[in-house]
Structures are given as C-alpha cells and as structure tokens.
Amino acid sequence: MDPVRTLFDEETVARRVAELAEAVAAEFSPDLLMVGILKGAFVFMADLMRALDRLGLRPGVEFIRLSSYGQSKESAGEVRLVTDLRTDLRGRQVLLVDDICDTGHSLAFAARLLAERGATLVRTCVLVDKPSRRVVDFAADFIGFTVEDVFIVGYGIDYAEQYRHLPYIGTVD
Ligand code: IMP
Ligand code: MG
Predict the structure, then answer these.
(1) In which band, very low, low, confident or very high, does the pLDDT at 71 lie, cut at 50, 70 and 90?
(2) 4, 153 contact by CB (below 8 A)
(3) Where would you tag: which of 8, 32, 76, 161 has the fewest CB atoms within 10 A of its CB?
(4) For residue 65, how far is its CA from the centre of ligand 2 (angstroms)?
(5) 93-101 and 121-129: which strand pairing?
(6) Residue 148 burial (CB < 10 Å; 0-12/13-18/19+)?
(7) In testing the pocket of ligand 1, which one of 45, 74, 98, 100 has its CB within 8 Å of the most ligand atoms?
(8) Helix 10-27 × helix 42-54 angle, to 10°
(9) Is the pLDDT of residue 44 over 80?
(10) 48: Cα separation from own chain's centroid
(11) Tens digit of each residue's pLDDT (9 = 90 or more) over 93-105
(12) Which residues line ligand 1 (CB under 6 A)?
C-alpha cells in the first residue's frame, strides 16, 4: 500500500457529518429516504444516518450501484445502473448520497434517474467535492469538504479496492 497523507482526521469528519445532518434536517421531513451509491458511500451513509437519528429523523435507507472506474483512477464518462432500488419513490423525499463528486457524471445521472421515478424532492449530498474536476454542469446541495484535484481514499473510499477501511480521509499520490 502506498503511504496515505491525512486530509481530514476522524474528529474533523465526525464534526462535519453532524453539521451536514443539521442542514439536511432543516430541509427534509423525518421520513426521508436516503439513497446511497455503492460502494463508496456506505461508511458516510452509516454515520449520516445516525446523525439524522440524533436530530429526531427516521430515515429509510436504500442503495444503488453504478458502473465504476474499475481499477483505474479515471472516470469513463459513461454511467450505467448496475443495481437498482426496490422501493417505490413516488411521493418520497430523497437524499442521494455519494462519497465524491468528481466529473459529476455519476451524480447527475443518478439524480435524474431518481427524479424521473416520481420523488417529490431529490437533493444530493457528497462527502467530498472536487469542483475543479467537473465535466458536466452539476452542483451537490450538501457538501462535506471541498478539495483540489487530489485522489482521496479512506472512510469507505477506495483506490483499486484498497484503503476503504481507514477511519479518516486521506490522499495517495
Ligand atoms: P464522477 O462520476 O466522475 O463524479 O465520479 C464519481 C465517483 O468516482 C465517486 O463516487 C467515486 O467512486 C469515484 N471517485 C472520484 N474521485 C475519486 C477519488 O479521489 N478517490 C476515489 N474514488 C473517486
Ligand atoms: Mg462512487
């Protein structure tokens, strides 16, 4: 494994997740549905879900899976739905959650998909935003951290399936 430089330590991440939950709670009804994008969002989802519970919300939780980078660090630009939801979105308030917004292809695709299914509200939440990398016109509604063009790992986020287990957010060269 290549050395990892810490960008946001555990305490910093926990504090920011609690703040994000406050912002989400101000906009959503208690029975919102969180939809996470696998696999990168699963750790963030788990912490955000419990932070929302502490604020009195009772979010439902679902996941989708999109085609990924594979072993590469670059996005192919073409996104496919690999694993779909099994929940009716009609009339639901949906918070779409991902680990990173990079080119924007994945979130733009997934947000459109969920909106087309009759959700009354679709908002997007990302742990890490990389605006300088954007290819499509997309802005997340809730953003944990904004970084330059660096490759992020840890807290559920991988490089070639490594580093997901790290409890903090770091960068590898
Ligand atoms: P986008 O479609 O280009 O915005 O890419 C979004 C997805 O690419 C994220 O959900 C991540 O899974 C992956 N990705 C983008 N940047 C990074 C990174 O720095 N580290 C690890 N995965 C990344
Ligand atoms: Mg991802």
Answers:
(1) very low
(2) yes
(3) 161
(4) 8
(5) parallel
(6) exposed
(7) 100
(8) 60
(9) yes
(10) 10
(11) 999 999 999 999 9
(12) 37, 40, 69, 75, 98-106, 151-152, 157
